[in-house]
Write a structure and sequence with these properties.
Belongs to the UPF0312 family. InterPro entries: Lipid/polyisoprenoid-bd_YceI, TTHA0802/YceI-like_sf. It comes from Citricoccus zhacaiensis. There is one protein chain. The protein has helices at 66-73, 183-186, and strands at 7-11, 17-24, 28-34, 37-43, 51-57, 61-62, 85-95, 102-111, 114-129, 135-146, 167-181. By secondary structure, the protein is mainly beta. The protein has a single domain (7-186), classed as Lipid/polyisoprenoid-binding, YceI-like (Lipocalin, Beta Barrel), CATH 2.40.128.110. The protein has an eight-stranded antiparallel barrel. A hairpin with a 6-residue loop joins strand 7 and strand 8 (102-111).
């Protein structure tokens, strides 16, 4: 990964999107986002020794349909009363190919109280100082998980002729994240 100023960076939730996509009825896709996310990125002198820690408020799920969101928050899916947060804690940053901007982010994802390792293909978008004097860094990450691996197994069968089920097991994840270096650390950069 290309050089990034060492220090502890804070996730800028207003400039971060945590989105997901699942196949619905085998013929279309449902997309959603989480509107409340927080976290930090600790950048080491050796970028591969860096780590990220993210917490997502599961109650902030937004698919654009309030009834569907209520079902996703219920016991069939996230069971947010018992498990209000999802977390991702990285365990490894691995170079990917010859492009220093691309890497694999490995970590432990916890959903509904179940933790599993995941790998996300990631890209460093760069570091800059914005119009307000804040040092920022941007990243994109994407991956796919099996919701069954996290104990989320609810489904409904489709008509016998069509086969299949209402909600796919595979969930695609897309993250666009912006981190800000606190002013005192950014001033040293």
């Amino acid at each position: 990964m290309t050089a990034l100023t060492p220090g502890t960076w804070n996730l800028d939730a207003t400039h971060t999107d945590v989105d997901f996509t699942v196949r619905h009825a085998g013929i279309s896709k449902v997309r959603g986002t989480f509107n409340a996310v927080e976290g930090s990125l600790v950048v080491a002198d050796d970028a591969t020794a860096s780590n990220v820690n993210i917490t997502i408020d599961a109650n902030s799920v937004d698919t654009g349909q309030p009834d569907r969101d209520a079902h996703i928050k219920a016991a069939d899916f996230f069971e947010t009363e018992a498990h209000p947060n999802m977390t991702f804690v990285s365990t490894e940053v691995r170079a990917q190919g010859n492009d220093p901007q691309e890497f694999t982010l490995v970590g432990n994802l916890t959903i509904k109280g179940v933790t599993n390792p995941v790998e996300l293909k990631a890209e460093f978008g760069g570091q800059t100082v914005d119009a307000f004097g804040m040092t920022r860094a941007g990243f994109e990450a994407a991956g796919e998980i099996s919701r069954k691996d996290f104990g989320i197994t609810w489904n409904a069968p489709l008509q016998a002729a069509a086969g299949g089920v209402l909600v796919s097991d595979a969930v695609k994840i897309q993250i666009d994240a912006s981190f800000v270096l606190p002013a005192e650390e950014g001033a040293q950069a």
